[in-house]
Amino acid sequence: MSSNDAAAPSGKNSDDDDLYQKHKKVYVREVHGLFATLRNAAMVVLLGLYYGLAWVSWNGQQVVLFDLPERKFHLFGLIFWPQDFIYLSALLIIAAIALFMFTSLAGRLWCGYACPQTVWTEIYMWMERLVEGDGRKQKKLDEGKHGSNYVRKKAGKHALWIAFSLWTGFTFVGYFTPIRELADSLITWNLGPWETFWIFFYSFATYGNAGFMREQVCIYMCPYARFQSAMFDRDTLVISYDEKRGEPRSRKAKKNATEGEKAGDCVDCGLCVQVCPTGIDIRDGLQYQCIGCAACVDVCDEVMEKVGRPKGLVRYTTENALEGKPAHILRPRVFIYVGIITLVTGLLLYSILTRTPLEVDILRDRSALFTENDMGMIENVYNLKVINMDAKSHEFTIEVEGLEGIRISGDKMLRVQVESGAIAEVPLRVEVDPESIKRRSSEIFFNVQATDQPDLMQHEPGKFIGPVAR
User: Fold this and answer.
1) What share of the chain is helix, strand, coil (3-state, %, to 5)?
2) CA–CA separation, 352 vs 94, rounded Å?
3) Could you tell me where in the chain the CATH 2.60.40.10 domains are found?
4) What is the pTM of this model?
5) Residues in contact with 246: Cβ distance below 8 Å, sequence separation at least 6, in sequence order
6) What is the CATH superfamily name and number for domain 358-465?
7) What is the chain's Cα-based Rg?
8) What is the pLDDT of residues 298-340, one digit of tens each?
C-alpha cells in the first residue's frame, strides 16, 4: 500500500485520492546514448527548420508565407489560393496515414522524436539544466532554502525561457506576416494589434506547455495517447522490459548468484524511472503515458554494460518476440499504409506539377432559356468568373466554339485584364444561327487564354439552349 493510500480517510476511494492529488514535478535525469543522440539530432533539425525557414527567400519572396490578407500561400516558389484547399486535404490525409503506419510499425515514434511538445520540452529542459544543473540538483534546489542562490537561478532560467518563448511567438507570426517587415515593425515598435496579440499568445502557450505542463500535455491533453493502442498489435515494435530475463530484481545480483539464489539481470537501480520524461516505470509494462523516447533503453544499456550483462534488458521489441514467437515487422497492414501514402503522394505531386493557375467558372443565366435578337440569332446569356491564381496579372482572351458560326455577341474575341489573385466577372451573350442548332441542348466550349503566356489557358464546357431547327 502506498503512503497516499495509507493516508486516505476512511470511506474515501483511494483511487479518487490519487486522481486528484497535487501534481508532482518530474525531475528528469540527463541520459546519453544512441537514442538520446537521435532525439537531439531531430530537435536540432526541426527547430532549425522552424526558426530558419522563415528567413529564407526564393526569387525575392519568403519561401514559406501564409499571406491571409492577400489570400496567397507561398510554398517553395509555388503560390496556392483558397481554391487549392484540396491540396491541404491531401496533405492531411498523407500525414494521418503516415502516423497510423509509424504507430503500427514502431509505436509512438512521432511522440518521442518529432512531436512539437516533445521537441520544445527538450530544449526547455536543456535550458533548465544549463542554469540549475541536472535533475538531482534541480530537486535539491527546489527543496532547499529559497535564498539568493535560488532566486538568481530561477530568475535566470525564466529569463531564458521567456526570451526563447518570445522568439518562438515572433517566428510563428513571421509565417503569416513577412518576417522582415515584422522585424522592422518590432524594432520601431509599430506592430499591429493582431501581430502583437499572436506573438504574445503563442509565446505564452510555448512557455506554459514546454516550461511547466510538459508531460501533463502528453498524459492528460493529447488525444493520441488515448487511442494509440487501437493501432498496436502483437508485432508492433514498442519499448518493453524483458521480464523473463530481468526478474527477480536484485541490487546484489552477483552475490546472490554465488550463493545459489536466482537473480535476474535487473539490478533495480531505478535509473529507467529517473530518465523518463513522464515519470513512469517501464518495468510495469506498456503504459499509455510512455511517449517512446527510448531514454530508458539508453540508460539501461549503460547499466548492463557496467555490470557485465548483455544489453537489451529494456529495448524496442514486439510482444511476440518477448514470448519467443516469430515477429513480423513488415506485415500486410504496413504495406497497405505504404501503398496508400505512395498513391496519394503521387497524385498530389502530379496534380501540383500539372496545375494551371487559372480557374474559370461558367454560370448560365436561368431567367430565360434563350432569346432571339433583332438579327434573328438565338442568344444565351452567361456569366464567366475568371480567377487568376498566378503571381502576376494577365490579359485574357475569351472565345467560344462548339457550334457552327457561334460567337460572342458584338465581338469575335473578348479581352479582360485580371490582376494576380483577383476574380473578374465577365457577363456576355453568345449567339448562334438557328440553322446551326440541331438539338435543344448543345455542348459548347469557352476558351480563356493569357495573351502573354499561351500555355496559361482553360477549355471549359458549357450548355447552349435553343429551339431545334425544322
Assistant:
1) 45, 20, 35
2) 15
3) 358-465
4) 0.81
5) 264, 265, 266, 283, 313
6) Immunoglobulins (2.60.40.10)
7) 33
8) 999 999 999 999 999 999 999 999 988 998 888 999 999 999 9
